[in-house]
Write a structure and sequence with these properties.
With 150 residues, this protein is α/β, with parallel strands linked by helices. The chain contains 5 helices and 5 strands; from the N terminus they run E-E-E-H-E-H-E-H-H-H. It has a 5-stranded mixed sheet with strand order 1-2-5-3-4, with helices on one face. Helix 1 (43-50) links the parallel strand 3 (34-39) and strand 4. The longest helix has 14 residues, at 72-85.
Length: 150
């Protein structure tokens, strides 16, 4: 499948990979190959409420609203894999509101793709949602992800 066209919710990373962010409550016209679901609900609970309109494959990342992932290293590994998959598949990141958690995950992916944390936050706020990654916990987490400069 072709990459996402640039447009609403789609962020292009330094590598050229494109990932869509959105609220899982938002109606869509194009489906993803893979939807990363940022939620505290179990896969069964989530599917019972929101299975319509999601990608053909769902990846769950345990992530409370307004906070950081429950298992940070696991989330980083999952997002790194999804970033790699975005070279040949349509990947999207979703949460209930489609702002804080989704924006933070997109910024994490930008850092994984080689950006400085502050630049990653700026990218996501400029091209996805200006309210993304604004909580102290989320911003601090992103800054801590950045490897120390030599």
């Amino acid at each position: 499948m072709a990459a996402w066209d640039l447009g609403e919710g789609v962020v292009e990373f330094p590598s050229g990979r494109r990932i869509r962010g959105r609220s899982w409550n938002q109606p869509i016209s194009e489906y993803a190959d893979v939807s990363a679901v940022l939620t505290t609900a179990s896969p069964e609970e989530f599917a019972a409420r929101h299975a319509v309109g999601m990608g053909r494959e769902l990846v769950y990342i345990s992530w409370p609203d307004y906070r950081i992932p429950r298992r940070p290293q696991q989330a980083i590994e999952q997002l790194a894999e999804l970033l790699e998959r975005a070279s040949s598949e349509r990947v999207e990141i979703t949460c209930g509101g489609g702002v804080g958690r989704t924006g933070t995950a997109l910024a994490m992916m930008a850092i994984i793709d080689g950006m400085k944390a502050s630049d990653a936050i700026d990218l996501v706020q400029a091209h996805y949602n200006p309210e993304s990654a604004t909580s102290h916990a989320q911003r601090g987490f992103l800054m801590d992800m950045e490897p120390p400069r030599k």
